[in-house]
Amino acid sequence: MNYTSTRDNKVSVSASQAILKGLAFDGGLFVPKEIPKLDVDIEKLKNSTYQEVAYEVMKLYLTDFTEEELKDCITKAYDQKFDTPEIAPIKKAAGAYYLELFHGATIAFKDMALSILPHLLTTSAKKNMVKKEIVILAATSGDTGKAAMAGFADVEQTRIIVFYPKDGVSKVQEMQMLTQKGKNVDVVAIEGNFDMAQTGVKTMFEDTRLNAELEEKGYQFSSANSINIGRLVPQIVYYVYAYANLLKTGEIQEGEKINVVVPTGNFGNILAAYYGKEMGLPIDKLICASNENKVLFDFFSTGTYDRNREFLLTSSPSMDILISSNLERLLYLIAGQDAEKVRSLMAELKVTGAYTITPEMREKLQDFIGGYATEEDTNEEIKRVYEECGYVLDTHTAVASFVGKKEATDKKTVIASTASPYKFVKSVMSAIDKKYGNEDEFELLEELHKISGVALPEAIKEILDAKPLHDKVCKADQMEAITKEILDI
Ligand SMILES: *Cc1c(COP(=O)(O)O)cnc(C)c1O
Predict the structure, then answer these.
(1) Which range marks the domain in which residue 434 is found?
(2) pTM (global) more than 0.85
(3) Over 90: is that where the pLDDT of 181 sits?
(4) Which of 12, 48, 272, 355 is the most exposed place for a label (fewest CB within 10 A)?
């Protein structure tokens, strides 16, 4: 299986090369030349562990990894770092199935892929005889940063530099990043929003002069953002696992189609579900849930993607995004793998901030439903589910839960539950009861424990008495300068 670029069909690289590079040189995203079909019966996966399902899915994409290499990566990634043996358990609450993807080291779903990416990357480096130090650059809206820092901390032959919007993350998220140990990790707050951080990182990847300079000093860039195929592939696994799990518990019958609702920002998670469907997983609708930054909702309703609008800060900061990078991979598929077409749409986006897809492309979006939740909808949903069954949703999951309820069909619905409520404790608690609105975020942790009965996760205990270790701040246009300073070049 080889990978090509969404912007140039002539590109052809192996899986390990695509993982190493992160982004194609033309600025496009790596995509498999063909989406493989699952080659086991889902029925057979009913009694498989998460690790076994991971192998069955990932082996189809990472074909230049040996069985031993891939299994080794999987074993190292999905271990006691997760606080439940199932890795991705399902909770049935208020008539829906919440697929809990937040039991990893940093209590957000980014752990599902970022626990394994460092292993995939170092294995890829060995396979390709890369001797250079790999510099991971990541832009984060809050959760990727910590998950990537934790994943790469003290991993040999790697450096990691994370950029986050200074006033765009929760206090817990910020503390998680600022207290990260490891001699190869750096984190920089930028005076700007997530899109500026992401654009800054992409610009550095595409800067040939900077890349040459780096190479001279023995470095090479790679990406831990969801543009890396090494993040997308591990995310397909939990949709397959969830389906097998529902079969096992008798919640669904063999072949029964389900709907999947995904709280969406950069479009990585929902794209993984779509790949799962294309691989043969019985999914009916993919419901794309946005917060008030509803650029994707508008795209699905009108066929026009338009980022020319105000960037809003919401209580679901990991979805505060106006440029959903992974949508490019979907465009590639609905354009019939026409890289030329994608390239021209992306050029238009860059220049005008907007593009419109053709009617033929729109035709192929039937599998998707777009929806969004306002801040008020989100708060009410947290309160509703809590009052109905005592289950506490985080703000991102609540966006999905609200949209899932609104767009309900006759199918059973799996909601991707992307973060622990502890991570967004202030928003969550004040949604449940306004009286919590003025309290200190850290004081509310114990309150959340009391009302939910869910134990305080390790990730939270860790930051309670840790001291910040990082304090770098820069303007959005100084990202290259500070990167050079960190790398001492
Ligand atoms: C990153 C993130 C999302 C959005 O996922 P995408 O793959 O970027 O669409 C949703 N919820 C949480 C908690 C996240 O961290």
Answers:
(1) 90-108+230-455
(2) yes
(3) yes
(4) 12
